[in-house]
Amino acid sequence: MKPKLMTVLPGYSRADLSRDTLAGVTVAMVALPLSLAIAIASGADPGAGLVTAIIGGFLVSLLGGSRVQIGGPTGAFIVVVYGTIIAHGYDGLVIATLMAGVLLLIAGVLKAGKLIELVPEPVINGFTIGIAVIIAASQLKDLLGLTMAEVPADFLPKIEALWAARDTFNGAALATGLGTMVLIVLLRRAAPRFPGLVVAVGLGSAVVALLALPVDTIQSRFGALPATLPTPALPELSLARMQELLPSAVVIAFLAGVESLLSAMVADRMIEGKHRPNAEMLAQGAANIGSSLFGGLPVTGAIARTATNVRAGGRTPVAGLVHATTILVVMLVAAPLAGKLAMPALAGLLILTAWNMSEPHKWRGYMAGRRSDVVLLGLTLVLTVLADLTVAIAVGVALGLALRLARRDAPPADWTPRDK
């Protein structure tokens, strides 16, 4: 369970530092608008996204079991974070994140990192696509510039409320969002290693400012972004409060563990490496505890940012440390500029993130699989969107494991009464 950083430091050269620094700065430029957008979509203050990327990202790279993993807030958490804040307040989210961190530490100590292999792939695919649907729906208000007193948390009531507010449609907002999305796609295709996300969102926001378009920005809606890290503090804990928040903590820990280990496995294929799953679990636990102490959001390994790190040349955890430090520097010296980012531009960014997160290029392969796997994926997707993420995971994992046992021709249980 030794951190990868300790493995790579012996023999670390100036050339390695130069390469990792460039990669870290590149990833930071991608992570910056994403962290702000994810926090806003989660119902949190946008500054919480920056805090999470800084504290969580630094600890994941410092203590993690992957050479190139980048940690921070991710789209997968938007649903559970939003629901937790609505039900228990932001202080409840902080406590749940702290508890999730402790659960992940316990999982790491118990060497439970390889248990990811037991989660059926259709379940992971189903709730990932379901989360992507919810994220995209949550961004329609800002993309269309709709004016609404309140946005319902549940999917179907949200769609009804959006339709009811259609008369407040803002064409300038839609043009800003669509323009940002087109620019992101074009830059990604033309220069995959270039931090096109921050350029596209920045240009879209610049057009809004220069033309004085009637479009919301981060600052106009939420006020000024914080220009420094908050003072760490332990949330107010009580047994009753912890019992109330335990289900949310379990879901956060599950998502953090699953996504971080999936991201590490993707990274292994990209660099032909081998991550240490139990060290990664410990790092995720420490990162979530650290983020909660600073009032941040849940942390996990971010697949897209990790892939960006690899493509930019990052090969050691130093790149992740540079990424977190760069975001901290931006917070300290350029918070007012970041506050000028336009809400429709961030909405377009998140909708594209949701689309990529659902991996549409794999849909045909999913449909060509076993019928039971297709049904399991569809059931998990529907439960995620229309019911609850906790229910979706519980039902999906239970049915998936039952199907796995059935495929192995497990013998039926012996219910013969025993002689006393």
Automatic annotation (TrEMBL):
GO terms for cellular component: membrane. GO terms for biological process: transmembrane transport. Keywords: Membrane, Transmembrane, Transmembrane helix. Residues 18-375 form the SLC26A/SulP transporter domain. The chain crosses the membrane at residues 21-41, 47-63, 70-87, 93-110, 122-140, 169-187, 194-213, 245-267, 327-355, 375-403. It is a multi-pass membrane protein. Pfam families: Sulfate_transp. InterPro entries: SLC26A/SulP_dom, SLC26A/SulP_fam. Its main location: membrane. It is found in: Membrane. This is C4-dicarboxylic acid transporter DauA. It comes from Antarctobacter heliothermus.
